[in-house]
Amino acid sequence: MAPRIIKSPFPPVPxxxxxxxxxxxxxxPPGNGIPKDHxxxxxxxTGETRSVGQFLERVKDGATALTASISQGGLGIAPGSDxxxxxxxxxxxxxxxLVHSCLYSTIPFALLQSHTTQxxxxxxxxxxxxxxxxxxxxxxxxxLQGAKDIGLPADRIYVLGGQVHGRKDxxxxxxxxxxxxLQRQEVVPAKKDTLAYLLFSSGTSGPPxxxxxxxxxxxxxxVQNLLNMQEAVKVMPPMQPTSxxxxxxxxxxxxxxxxxxxxxxxxxxxxxLVILPRWNLDQVLEAIPQYKITHLALVPSxxxxxxxxxxxxxxxxxxxxxxxxxxxxLPPELSKKMSKFLKGSPEIPEGYGLxxxxxxxxxxPLPGMLGLQPAPRSTGILLAGQEAxxxxxxxxxxxxxxxxxxxxxxxxxxxGYWKDEAATKAxxxxxxxxxxxxxxxxxxxxxxxxxxxxxxxxxxxxxxxAPAEIETTILSQPDxxxxxxxxxxxxxxxxxxxxxxxxxxxxxxxxxALGEKEVARRVNAWVEERLSKYKWLKGGVGFVDEVPKSPTxxxxxxxxxxxxxxxxxxxxxx
Length: 574
Fold this sequence. Notes:
Layout: E1 6-7, H1 21-27, E2 39-43, E3 49-51, H2 52-67, E4 85-88, H3 93-104, E5 109-111, H4 118-128, E6 132-135, H5 140-150, E7 157-159, H6 170-179, E8 195-200, E9 210-214, H7 215-235, E10 246-249, H8 256-264, E11 272-275, H9 281-290, E12 295-298, H10 300-308, H11 310-314, E13 322-325, H12 332-339, E14 351-353, E15 360-363, E16 381-382, E17 387-391, E18 404-409, E19 416-417, H13 421-427, E20 434-442, E21 448-453, E22 458-460, E23 463-465, H14 467-475, E24 482-491, E25 499-507, H15 509-514, H16 516-530, E26 541-543, H17 557-573
Helix pairs in contact: 2-3, 2-6, 4-5, 10-12
Keywords: Ligase
Pfam families: AMP-binding, AMP-binding_C
InterPro entries: AMP-bd_C, AMP-bd_C_sf, AMP-binding_CS, AMP-dep_synth/lig_dom, ANL_N_sf
């Protein structure tokens, strides 16, 4: 039986040339149509600004500094060599410059998680076998220790976003190029499969894997986004005129969402990007009125903080027109709360993506877009140039509205995992299909609905139970007694390996006033009234000060499960 393949409703993607991504971004419309004197970047803390022209000049000089010989004061990195440049830093103006300098000269780089532990950094550096590291001064000691552990000479570590006595830094390298007026490096040609960078998976289900993204992947992804924007503007309601739209950036550049939104997509439309080093609620609430921010890109965990903080109610958010969410599932209740702060679009656009598909695969259409109406609680439709399947556990294709694993195919599917043949074979099939590990269903209109991560899904008496559905139900409880929740499986089923749902709740002020016992009673009653018996909280209800999450908002269920298992073990000793 032939596979049931779902096609994208977007117009087909035109043939794309095999180019260096930097060339494609800045030498073709619309990127080359932005005036060179347009202010593209603002440091949100210092107020320093850069125009498009200044940025492009700095990128070329940065690429020259990377490739110039050591005798000329450069680093002597040969384009197309086996070198891997690690970048370990909070967000900054020069972080973006360094990334584009590497792309310009086809020097592969690896984005390292700046929040990680020493052991975590050592693992990442060893995994990629980094040959150089650019690091922010605040993380230098961590980088030096990591370099020592993998045998990387200390003189291969450079400073990004500051100066440290006795150590080369990116700004000084660029100044050297300019003071000596070195012959500038030209853009190095790239093929579709030329490695652009390594990005590490979240590691929520095991050690992080290095995802290999190519120049061809990046070009295709940008075109997908442009086609999505092209269809959206046809039906988008007019927004308050601003010149230009002002975006606030605090999402980490080492993650796909922050990387693509703020390092790549910002160059295809004339916007101004105000950059903060990282998420800080006080700085965000101060920057919004100071810079008259109109647009925010968020993840669910940050939306949760924003809408539930007393500080937000007192802040001036009158300039906000638009907010988007990604990287993790956004419960409808959170979306509704966030929409109240927006003066423009009442909708918070969502989508679905993963690093293994470069960034995005699904986007929720605006009403009327492509003749479609967004279905309630849907995730979206396939972006241009992709095909998808929903696959049962036995490998056969699921029926309409039947949940199964989401498989995708298209030029946005990446090269594989860095030096991990087993994981690559398990995830990337020979015929081009990518197994995402996420459960979806798709309706008769080609609209996709997220069910859960396959690894999180419980099977109770043969019935699949999605924790996300239970979480959404609990958050919809009308008494506003819970501000956040996580559901995961714990022992207690009919067999040794069967798990049952347990909820961990974060209480609101009104919930605290009621007390844990009464809150548990109300939550259980609400769940049992609305969900089938298999989805009841037979593992009980627990209470936490906060739900553990990754920096991008993914719930770390295993942290809660491990803590609960330890708790049971301690009780068994009594």
